[in-house]
Structure formats: structure tokens, C-alpha cells
Design a protein that fits this description.
The complex is a heterotrimer of chains A (542), B (363) and C (160). With 542 residues, chain A is α+β, with helices and mostly antiparallel strands. Chain A has helices at residues 2-5, 29-35, 87-101, 118-126, 161-168, 201-205, 268-271, 295-307, 323-335, 368-375, 382-392, 412-418, 478-488, 498-508; strands at residues 11-16, 19-24, 59-62, 69-70, 81-83, 142-144, 149-152, 175-178, 185-188, 211-213, 226-231, 240-246, 249-255, 287-288, 291-292, 312-317, 339-343, 352-354, 358-360, 396-403, 423-428, 440-443, 452-455, 460-464, 525-526. In chain A, a hairpin with an 8-residue loop joins β11 and β12 (240-246). By secondary structure, chain C is an alpha+beta fold. The chains are: A alpha+beta (542), B mainly alpha (363), C alpha+beta (160).
């Protein structure tokens, strides 16, 4: 893989399906063909794992061999001629598929993999329409491998992707193949369940429905779900995820490939952390002095507060707001006579890194850098201190708090400080210490319901999208609410989409120059020229 | 005392008015029932046969259903005109009926100029339709109302000219006189009362056949019945001018249309079919002029003729398809009006030349 | 061949004759039409079936109300694979799956609702079912007093 991107690698002339082509030396036939947009079926091959070559489905015809060769492990060479769709190659694949299906239970109707199952897809192309196997199918174990992972052994084709993952990526090595021949199946060692922080990935890489996530089991069929590309907000790593939802409920998160951020993986902490969307404490309606009010009334009240803050206006942001929301915060602050903007961020956890060059960031918030790029590098540092000091002295008369964190972690000093503000409006995801006694509570959107951009710990700007279908959204996200307030207050002419707000932001803020939502690649783009202050430096993040 | 009250002319007039009103109202449900039954028979169906004996109480059920429907006034409707429109359809139709002689000297109101009154009042119905279409604030209603007014005004010309032909023949605009005259007018051949001529071929339908046909066609258009029901054709206009009407307002519209049909049929009987006269038999002469039996029998005869005409209305409705609007206007302006004008001229000529206006003229 | 057609005269297309006066007045067709309807009016063989008293047997394969089948142990055959709801063009089938408590079966429907008001009775669910668990019965008279009654749940479908 890395060779493919190196321009100094010499090129090799070879022939693919009768077409003379050039590819960098050292690539396997499979990778080179994939780069040339010719796909070859594969089960055991995974770009992030070592080559095993045990499934044999990727066999192709070669001019250097009388028998078909496996393209995932054979490398290209000068003068090599490869046929991927020749009768020999197809016959070989058909034979492999028939072999794989001998003991397969064909329980697609109840299998949670159905719809995204490689075995299912290839059996449409290469599978026999009936079985010649008259004997009893063998039965292999169905059991829990760990707290989140089940194995349905009958479905296993022993490609060993999961075993290699545990060996190479998580480095924990819990899984192994036990038994031999047609009885071989994946299992854990006695008393050692698979419970590493990356365990959920083995479900994603399993090409069949053998490894099943407990969390998703029987929850939904794949084809019914709405799939939204977004970014995990669990830590500052910003893993690219696909949010899969059904009828407005998130059913599961799966990682998207992004070689610059998370490769093909994500951690279990982020993967299973979506239940807070339905938490009982979730704020679902605006309240004013504890009484439920219409959205419009709440927006109008806040707009009046902004028009007449009655003294110093304080705005407390968190690292969960998007860059676009931060930009609106700055607009509010710049229109006020006397405004203090400060930031608060949750306590750092422990960073973890894994042999497979995958890391979990210790900073447990998704967008500190993005907020700093918009509101200034000191917003979580000395500006935050200044705001807190002013609050503690009772100098702030109107305070707007953004409390969009999924797991409220009340910082006592801050909680005590914000209560000293004369009036307080809170954009809150969940009710708790931050909303207690607040004059105005406005429902906030979770990171999966926001529309905008986050910058991860490397300063890579990535797009987040709401998983709600347009029109299904029960509450508008913070960006729309803020714009509604600003429109009533006369600070903005009308409400715009997040893309339009970002365009304004890119015009004004230097780190965002030249960027736009439509040109932002699916893998994100680094913020050019933005160098955050290192953590711990005086005036930097605290 | 009681005798004084009964013989008081005002009391008698009120009684007559109530009687006409009540009678007409009672006829309409029956008419609706017969229309549905006959329609079903024509279409090889059964028709309403569940409510009451032979389904005869179906109209009652219909009325109850209508009365319990929600009475809707659309947003943006011109409220007062919207409420007024059904009454403007219904009232003229029932008012026109008052001058029809349904039997010997049996008339709610005896006018010397009965026909003029009838045509005048009858023309008012068009206001109801136009108002209903206008006030509903609905494009289909508006088009329906426009069509209704254009159609009724157009066919009123032909209808009026046909009536004038009859008036010229009868030399009177008093409906009683026209009825009497249809029996006695030259029903003799060489001074002999011959079978067939007496009291039958002397009907205006034989003396003015063209006028009768024109009147019949125009009356279909005047009452918005098929094949001329373009103002309310459901395929194009949902329900035409009464699209937005519901509950009793709709019922009033409905009632008005059937009463108009009744009035038109009664007028046709009076003008062309010898009114309450029995063919070949001079009932008043046999039973005595002032006898109550004479009156009852004459009313019965009138009712019989009326029933046949009403059946004809229904029969035609379920036999023929709807005209296109341009065909309707073509028929009205380019065919019926020239024809009726020609007929009028011929009648005038005959009057001058002293023709006897019997079909068997050569005899 | 030509001699066979000696008597044929190729006159070209017949000159369309304009309708005569009799036709343009529509007089005869009108009378004919009235006679036709009158004839029908006095026909006695109305084809109407008097429904509540006379009922006709549905044709074989008639697609009426649905039912869920049971296996020989009396358990629902359905394995909650969602194929019927996927095939349903009216989106009237709502399923929520759960783990089956039986050893020989993994999955079963916790909720199986069919919105009979939305259903178009096309029978695609029956065709899609891999377990032969749902079928359409010939029952066609399925009135109800409330809308709620028209949403059939699992118990209702199993008892059909």
C-alpha cells in the first residue's frame, strides 16, 4: 500500500485482462488490480492485515502458472499476464464458493450480516443454485466470545481476519482457530474473553455473519437503515464513522476508511457510545424558569437578552460545538458592548495506542482545535479563566452556556461559577448540574445530530452530519437555533445552511481560508497554517 | 266562528300556500327515490331496497344523513352570499309552482299574467347558482356558476320564444285559459265531435309541435339535468357550484333542483299536454263544474301527466351522455333560437291568416 | 393471380360522406337510445347479488386478510427476517425482532403489525416469505369500528 503512493517506486509492465498496464513494483495482483478499478472477490484479504491466502476465492489465471494463482498474495512482475474473468478463473471461484457453502447453514433470513455479507454477494455471482452435498452438515459452536461479541460457528468460513486483527492491530491476540478440517472454527482461549478496546472491529471485518455484535443483534436489517457519514465525538481523534439509524434511532456505528485518521478501525468506547441520545435526562423541549415554552418564545427571550444584556455578556463554550456554531458565538460577542467568551472542556482521560498504528486520544472532546481556530487560541485557557473569575465576582449579568457534552461531568468550580450569573441560558443536551436554576434551557443537539465541521487533534477539519432524515428532525440543531435567535435580535438577516455559514467563516477566519463544505474531501482536510498552542503551556489549554 | 275563519280569503290563501309548499316538499323525496330506482333498473341493478319496504324510506335516511353532516363554510367564502345562494335556487322554483293550475280552478295563486310571473320568477334561479359558485371561493365552483348562468340565460331565450308561440296560439297569458283552450279549441271536424280530435289532438303539443320540442329541450338545460348538466359535471368540476356545500345547505340546493324539475314538468303539462284535462272526456261537463270530484279527478289527471314527464326526465338522464360545452352553446344559440324564432313567425302568420292550428288542417 | 382480382375495382378510399340531416338531428339515435334503456328497465335478470344473504365463494388464490402460520408445536413460523416488510410496496408491515426462547430457532418477531388500511393485498409478503409463515386468506369482509382495530398485531394475525 505504502509503495503505491511513493513516486520513486519503479513501474512494472504487466497485462490485466488483455490490457497492458503499469503498476508500481511490489504490489500484489489484487492491490494492483484494485488500483486499476478491477475488483476481484476476496474473503481473507484485508488491506489492514497481513496476507493469509487461505480463502482461495481471489484466484485468477496467470500466464506463469498452469494452475490459477491467488491474487492477494502473488505479486506483479514484468510480463505477467492475468485474466480475472477467464473460464478458468471463474470455474475456480465457483468451485471455491461451492466448497464454502457446503457447511454454511444458509440462514440469511435471521443473520444480521445479510445485506452486507460478502458470502451472500459472491454466492449470487459464483455460487451454485443447489447443493450436491447429501450428508449432514456439521454443527459448530454458537457462543459468547466476550462481553460484546458472539460467534455463530456454523457461518464461519475460517478466513482468520479476526484472528489476525487481534494479533496485529489490537495486539491482544485473544482469538485463535481451534479444531481441524471442516470442524475448524474461531474461538477464544479458556478464561480469556475478547474484551480489548478495539474488539468491535472484528464484527466489521468478518466477511460473513460469524462474529456478531451483541449490541446490534436482531436490532435491524442492514438494508432498512439510513446511513450517514459523520465523525465520532468520543475523543479528539475524530474517527470517521457511518451512523446507521432506523426511524430516527441510531442502531449502530461502523468505521469508515480514512487512512489519515483511523484507517479502518474505531474503538469500542466510541462505537457503543450512542445510547445517551435516548437518555432520560435528554432535554427535549425549551423551558423558561422551569416552565415549558414554545421554541419561538425561548428564542425570542434569548434574543431580548442579547439585545440588552444588562451589563457584561458571558458566553461559555464547550469543545462539542462545531466551527460554524463557534463562528456565530463570535458574532454574538462582537455585537455586544462588553462580552467575555470562555471555554470549558472535560477532563482528559488516558491516551491509548495499539500496534496497528491506531490511537485513542486522551482528550475526550471532538473539537477543541476547531473552537480555538475560530474563537482564539486562548479560549480554553486564559480566556476561560477570565470568564470564570468574572463569574465568581458576580460581574456577568447574562450568561450563555453551551453544554452539549454527552456525559455531563460537572466541574464544581464552573458549576458554582455559572450560578452567580444574573441570567443564564443553557443549550443543553442533558439536564443536570449545568441546567439547574437556569432561566432558559434550550435543547442542544448531540454531535451526531449536528451539521458542520469538527477539527480533530491533528487539526484535520472533518464534516459531521445529522443522522436524522430531513423533515424527521424533532428539534433543530444548535446552529439553526442560534441563527433563529440572531435573526430575531437583528444580528443576522436570515437563517442559512451550515454550508453557507461555513462560507462566511472561511472568508473571515484565516485558518479556514479556501475551504468549503462542498470541496472538503470525505477524509477531511488539514486546517492550513493553524498551529495550536501545546497543552500545558501558560495561557494554553488547561 | 270557525266558518268565518275557514272562509276568510287570507286564511284560504295561507292554507293554499302551505299546501303547495308541503306538497312540493313531499314530492321531492319520492322523486329522488324513483330516480334512484329507475336509474338502477335501467342499469340492470337493483337500487335502494334496504331501508323500509322496497327501500321506500331511503330518502328519509338520506335526509337524516345530510342533516347530520358537518356544515362547512370555506375559508375566504363570502359568507352571506354563500348562505343565501341555496335559498335563491330553492325559493323561485317553489314560488313558480304556485301559479300552475294543477286542477280545475286549483291554483295557489290565480294570476291573469301567470306565464309572465312564472318566467320572471323562474329566471331568478340563475342568481342562486351564480352566487353559490362565486361565494364558495373555489375555482371549480366559480366555473360551475359561470357555466350555469351562461347556460340558463341562453336557453331561457329559446324557452321564452317557445312559450310565446303557445301564448299567441291561445291568445292569452292566463294559464287557466290556456288549459281550457287546449280542450275546446276547434276540437271538432265539420261540427262533429269526432274521436281523437276532441280534447286530445287539440293539445298544444299537436298544434305547436316544434315549440313543444324546443320547450322540452330547453327545460332540460334550464333545470341543469343531463344531458345538459355541465354546471355540475363531476368529471370536470368536482361538483360545480355546490362543490363546497355540505349538510342542509347542500340539501337545499338539491331540493331546489328537483323542485325546478317539478315546476318545469308542470309547466310543460300545462302548456302543451292539456293541463288537467282528460283526453276525450270533458270531466267538468260530466261531473259538474263545482263538484269536489271534478277537482280531485282533474288533479289526478294532472298528476298522472306530470308523473309521465318526470319519468321522461329521469329516463333521459340515464340514457344520454353529457354534451360538451361548445356543443351546448351551439345547440342553444344556432339551432334552438333560430328554430323558435321561425316557429314564432309561422305562428304569427297563421294568426293573421286565421289558420285553425290543428294538425289535421286539410280535413 | 391477377385474374382472381378482375372483378375488384380499386376505387381508392371511400369518400367520407357527411352526416345526413337525419343523422345530424340525432333524432333516430335518440329514440333508439331511449328504447334501449327502456328495454333494460323492464329486464328482470339483474345480476346483483344480495350480499349479506347471498355470498359468493372467493376464487382460488383470492388475496384477502393475512394470517401468520404456526408450526407443528404451535409456535409462529415467522423468524422475523423482514423480507415481507422489505418486499411490501405499501410499507404496511412493522416488525420488531427478538431472540427466540427455543433451542432450534434463533429469532422471532416480538412485534408483527400489519396496517390493513395501508395494505394493497398484493401478496408480495407471501411470495417473499422464506419460511412460508405468512399467507393471505380468502377473508374479504373485514370491517372495523376504529382505525386502531385495522392495525393487526401478531396475536390477531396468528388467530386468523
Amino acid at each position: 500500500m505504502s509503495e503505491a503512493t511513493n513516486p520513486e517506486t519503479p513501474l512494472v509492465n504487466w497485462v490485466l485482462n488483455g490490457q497492458p498496464v503499469q503498476s508500481p513494483a511490489g504490489m500484489t495482483i489484487f492491490e494492483a488490480a484494485k488500483a486499476l478499478e478491477t475488483t476481484i472477490p476476496n474473503f481473507c484479504y484485508h488491506p489492514g492485515l497481513t496476507i493469509a491466502g487461505n480463502c482461495r476465492i481471489c484466484m485468477v489465471e496467470s500466464n506463469r502458472s498452469k494452475k490459477p494463482v491467488i491474487s492477494c498474495s502473488e505479486r506483479i512482475a514484468e510480463g505477467l499476464e492475468i485474466q480475472t474473468e477467464s473460464p478458468m478463473a471463474i470455474e475456480a471461484r465457483n468451485a471455491v464458493m461451492e466448497f464454502q457453502l457446503i457447511n454454511h447453514p444458509l440462514d440469511c433470513p435471521v443473520c444480521d450480516k445479510a445485506g452486507e455479507c460478502d458470502l451472500q454477494d459472491y454466492s449470487y455471482d459464483h455460487g451454485p443454485d443447489r447443493s450436491r452435498f447429501d450428508e449432514e452438515k456439521n454443527i459448530r459452536h454458537t457462543k459468547e466470545l466476550g462481553p460484546t461479541i458472539d460467534i455463530w460457528g456454523n457461518r464461519c468460513i475460517v478466513c482468520t481476519r479476526c484472528v489476525r486483527f487481534c494479533d496485529e492491530i489490537s495486539g491482544t491476540g485473544e482469538l485463535c482457530v481451534v479444531e481441524r478440517g471442516d470442524r475448524s472454527v474461531v474461538d477464544v482461549f479458556p478464561t480469556v474473553p475478547i474484551d480489548n478496546p478495539l474488539a468491535g472491529n472484528v464484527v466489521d471485518i468478518c466477511p460473513v455473519g460469524a462474529l456478531i455484535s451483541n449490541d446490534f443483534k436482531f436490532e435491524a436489517r442492514i438494508w432498512n437503515m439510513r446511513k450517514t457519514d459523520s465523525v465520532c465525538a468520543g475523543c479528539a481523534r475524530g474517527c470517521n464513522v457511518e451512523v446507521q439509524s432506523l426511524d430516527g434511532f441510531v442502531k449502530r456505528l461502523v468505521p469508515r476508511e480514512n487512512m489519515e485518521v483511523n484507517k479502518w478501525w474505531m474503538c469500542d468506547e466510541g462505537r457503543y457510545d450512542y445510547r445517551y441520545l435516548l437518555a432520560d435526562e435528554r432535554v427535549t423541549a425549551c423551558t423558561k424558569d422551569g416552565e415549558p415554552v414554545e421554541d419561538h418564545d425561548a428564542h425570542e427571550t434569548l434574543a431580548h437578552w442579547l439585545q440588552d444584556p444588562g451589563g457584561t455578556l458571558g458566553i461559555l463554550v464547550d469543545p462539542y460545538i462545531t466551527c460554524e456554531e463557534a463562528f456565530l458565538v463570535e458574532q454574538i460577542a462582537s455585537h455586544a458592548n462588553n462580552a467575555l467568551v470562555g471555554g470549558w472542556k472535560p477532563a482528559d482521560g488516558t491516551a491509548q495506542s495499539f500496534p496497528g498504528q491506531f490511537t485513542i486520544s486522551g482528550e475526550k472532546a471532538p473539537n477543541r482545535l476547531g473552537v480555538e481556530a475560530v474563537l482564539g487560541k486562548l479560549v480554553f485557557g486564559s480566556q476561560g479563566h477570565a470568564l470564570r473569575t468574572a463569574l465568581e465576582k458576580g460581574q456577568v449579568s447574562t450568561l450563555i452556556v453551551f453544554a452539549g457534552f454527552p456525559h455531563p461531568d460537572p466541574d464544581d468550580a464552573w458549576v458554582q461559577a455559572i450560578r452567580k450569573a444574573k441570567r443564564r441560558a443553557v443549550f443543553a443536551l442533558q439536564a443536570g448540574a449545568w441546567t439547574e436554576g437556569a432561566g432558559l434551557v434550550i435543547p442542544g443537539a448531540s454531535p451526531f445530530e449536528k451539521d458542520g465541521t469538527y477539527a480533530n487533534e491533528d487539526g484535520r477539519l472533518q464534516r459531521v452530519r445529522s443522522f436524522h432524515a430531513p423533515g424527521d428532525v424533532e428539534w433543530s440543531h444548535d446552529l439553526q437555533r442560534l441563527q433563529a435567535v440572531l435573526r430575531i435580535a437583528g444580528l443576522r438577516p436570515r437563517s442559512l445552511s451550515s454550508s453557507a455559514v461555513f462560507r462566511e467563516l472561511a472568508d473571515v477566519k484565516k485558518p479556514f481560508h479556501g475551504l468549503s463544505h462542498s470541496t472538503l474531501p470525505a477524509t477531511g482536510a488539514p486546517l492550513p497554517g493553524f498551529i495550536p498552542l501545546p497543552v500545558g503551556v501558560e495561557g494554553g489549554s488547561v | 266562528m270557525i266558518h268565518d275563519i275557514i272562509t276568510n280569503p287570507y286564511v284560504i290563501q295561507i292554507f293554499k300556500a302551505v299546501l303547495v309548499f308541503g306538497a312540493v316538499l313531499q314530492i321531492v323525496p319520492g322523486l329522488v327515490y324513483f330516480e334512484r330506482r329507475i336509474a338502477a333498473w335501467i342499469q340492470d341493478r337493483v337500487g335502494p331496497n334496504r331501508v323500509g319496504p322496497l327501500g321506500a324510506l331511503q330518502p328519509v335516511a338520506d335526509v337524516i344523513k345530510l342533516a347530520f353532516k358537518e356544515d362547512i363554510t370555506p375559508d375566504g367564502a363570502d359568507r352571506w352570499i354563500y348562505r343565501l345562494a341555496p335559498l335563491l335556487v330553492y325559493a323561485p322554483a317553489i314560488l313558480a309552482f304556485t301559479v300552475i293550475p294543477v286542477g280545475l280552478d286549483t291554483q295557489a295563486a290565480h294570476f291573469d299574467l301567470g306565464i309572465v310571473f312564472l318566467l320572471t320568477v323562474g329566471s331568478f334561479g340563475v342568481y342562486g347558482l351564480a352566487f353559490g359558485g362565486w361565494a364558495s371561493n373555489n375555482k371549480y365552483s366559480l366555473i360551475g356558476g359561470l357555466r350555469a348562468s351562461a347556460q340558463m340565460i341562453s336557453y331561457e331565450v329559446a324557452l321564452g320564444l317557445a312559450v310565446i308561440s303557445v301564448v299567441m296560439t291561445a291568445q292569452s297569458i292566463d294559464l287557466q285559459v290556456i288549459v281550457q283552450q287546449q280542450y275546446s279549441a276547434g276540437g271538432t271536424l265539420l261540427g262533429l265531435h269526432l274521436f281523437g280530435f276532441d280534447g286530445f289532438l287539440s293539445w298544444n303539443v299537436f298544434r305547436q309541435p316544434l315549440a313543444a320540442i324546443i320547450f322540452l329541450i330547453a327545460s332540460f338545460a334550464e333545470t341543469n339535468r343531463l344531458p345538459f348538466d355541465l354546471p355540475e359535471c363531476e368529471a370536470e368540476l368536482v361538483g360545480g357550484y355546490h362543490t363546497e356545500y355540505s349538510s342542509l345547505k347542500f340539501a337545499t340546493f338539491f331540493l331546489g333542483e328537483y323542485v325546478a324539475m317539478l315546476t318545469m314538468s308542470a309547466l310543460m303539462v300545462t302548456l302543451f299536454l292539456g293541463g288537467w284535462h282528460m283526453p276525450w272526456l270533458d270531466v267538468p261537463a260530466v261531473m259538474g263544474d263545482a263538484s269536489i270530484w271534478t277537482i280531485l279527478i282533474s288533479i289526478g289527471i294532472f298528476t298522472g301527466k306530470l308523473t309521465f314527464l318526470l319519468f321522461f326526465f329521469i329516463w333521459v338522464r340515464w340514457s344520454f351522455p353529457r354534451f360538451r360545452y361548445d356543443q351546448l352553446m351551439h345547440l342553444g344559440w344556432k339551432i334552438l333560437i333560430p328554430l323558435s324564432l321561425g316557429n314564432l313567425g309561422l305562428t304569427a302568420l297563421g294568426g293573421i291568416l286565421g289558420w285553425n292550428w290543428l294538425i289535421p288542417l286539410p280535413f | 393471380m391477377a385474374h382472381d382480382h378482375d372483378h375488384d375495382h380499386d376505387d381508392g378510399p371511400a369518400e367520407p360522406k357527411g352526416p345526413g340531416l337525419a343523422e345530424r338531428t340525432y333524432f333516430v339515435p335518440l329514440i333508439k337510445g331511449l328504447a334501449n334503456t327502456l328495454h333494460h328497465m323492464f329486464r328482470v335478470d339483474a345480476n346483483t347479488q344480495h350480499y349479506p344473504e347471498q355470498r359468493r365463494a372467493p376464487a382460488p388464490g383470492y388475496r384477502g386478510e393475512h394470517r401468520l402460520k404456526r408450526d407443528e408445536l404451535g409456535r409462529e413460523k415467522c423468524v422475523a427476517c423482514f423480507l415481507c416488510s422489505t418486499a411490501c410496496p405499501a410499507h404496511c408491515i412493522e416488525i420488531v425482532a427478538e431472540e427466540a426462547p427455543w433451542s432450534d430457532r434463533e429469532k422471532r418477531p416480538r412485534l408483527f403489525n400489519i396496517d390493513m388500511m395501508r395494505c394493497i393485498y398484493c401478496g408480495m409478503c407471501e411470495e417473499a416469505c422464506p419460511c412460508d409463515a405468512i399467507e393471505l386468506t380468502p377473508v374479504f369482509n373485514i370491517p372495523s369500528r376504529t382505525r386502531g382495530e385495522k392495525i393487526y398485531d401478531k396475536e390477531r394475525l396468528l388467530s386468523n
